[in-house]
Amino acid sequence: MDSEWSFIETLRHLVFATDAWVRRTILGDPSPWDPLDLPWDEMPDTPGIPRDREVRPPLDTVLTLRRDRMATVRTVIDGLTEESLASHTAPVEGAGRPPPKSFRLRECLLIVLNEKWHHRQFAERDLDALEATGDRAT
Predict the structure, then answer these.
(1) What are the angstrom distances between the C-alpha of 8 and each of 36, 95, 116?
(2) In-domain check, residue 107
(3) pLDDT digits 0-9 by tens, 85-127
(4) Exposed, middle or buried by CB within 10 Å (0-12, 13-18, 19+), for 106?
(5) 72: enclosing H helix or E strand
(6) Is residue 30 a part of any domain in this protein?
(7) Cis bond upstream, residue 58 (ω within 30)
(8) Residue 80: which region, alpha, beta or left (left: phi > 0; alpha: psi -120 to 50)?
(9) Contact 89, 102 (CB under 8 A)
(10) Is pLDDT above 70 for 36?
(11) Residue 86 lies in a domain
């Protein structure tokens, strides 16, 4: 666990995933990135996409950003129909992540939901480990 992301870094990564797959790909914003977005470590540097792993924003700042992205996802989901879920996105202009091509809307949402599910598992595992050692540090 020592070399893994902190809870705040995990939230920043979830913001990145939402910005990439919902704001960029589904909503068509070619550059949706927030300076606190955090791509996965192995992603190559991409012009215009932030990846400052050293920044240490306060939890409240990151929670506000995450809540905003969750509201964006909720708005997209609330507007879904069977037809729109099966539709394809329009290719986004410009370089970025994901690449400028068409994706099934369903695929984009599944990627975001999968990211959230996996990172929740990591967070719960880490909380269990802290409770087992009696560590109450935040």
Answers:
(1) 10, 27, 14
(2) yes
(3) 999 999 988 878 898 899 999 999 999 999 999 888 877 776 6
(4) middle
(5) helix 59-78
(6) yes
(7) no
(8) beta
(9) yes
(10) yes
(11) yes
